[in-house]
Amino acid sequence: MTDLQHHDYAMSFGPVAAQYEAARPSYPPELLDSVERLAGRPLRDAEVLDVGAGTGIATRLLRARGARVTAVEPSEGMARQLLLSCPGTTVVKAGGEELPFHDSTVDLVTYAQAFHWTDPARSVPEAVRVLRPGGALAVWWNRPDSTVPWLAASRDRLVAALTPYHPNVRSDSTADSLAGYGLRVTDVELAWERRTTVDGLIAELGSRSHLAVLPADVRAGVLAAERTALLAEFPDGSVLQPWRLDLSVGVSAD
Fold this sequence. Notes:
By secondary structure, the chain is α/β, with parallel strands linked by helices.
């Protein structure tokens, strides 16, 4: 993917922000339990930057744990939806590669489903800069569990239909990206699932960047074909959707 394509894909979420908020999955409670355990401190009263906050899916969970969260989001469309979803949240329009915050001022920097949109050579040093001694950088992603046959088949159909298409798969490079800047990194994988519908799956697919950048008629055709295939698998329209969540937490030196 070229730099221009990367920018276009990264900025594709604004127009589909409401769909993103409605269709994207949240995260299991075990996620924040793991973040607290690996960061070595509770989230309550922690100063947190949720970078690439999107519509605030993770922001809400962090606030519910008692964290003082500032949402950092470069897309105006996503930031507007975040303020609708999380009234009262402080939102700063910025990206992770240039955080407009003072040195050593926060306890935790989080990237929920967003770290891959940054250049780690710039975003990780920025996170380390704003962290207090002993603070932590936590990055995580939900990814469909492609060991499940129907999810593997769905992935393969999308790979065949879309060029380019990069399935959301586990990357072994995340820990290396974090550890290269003096962070003590631990990786965790969590398995979880949610009950949804075929139409919910199609709405979720439509909120992904690879679909959002397509012309409307092309996107509609791809999604209609996928809906037909999923209904053949789940005739009653009800789906138990399994996920794997990949979490990396890097703790800075005291």
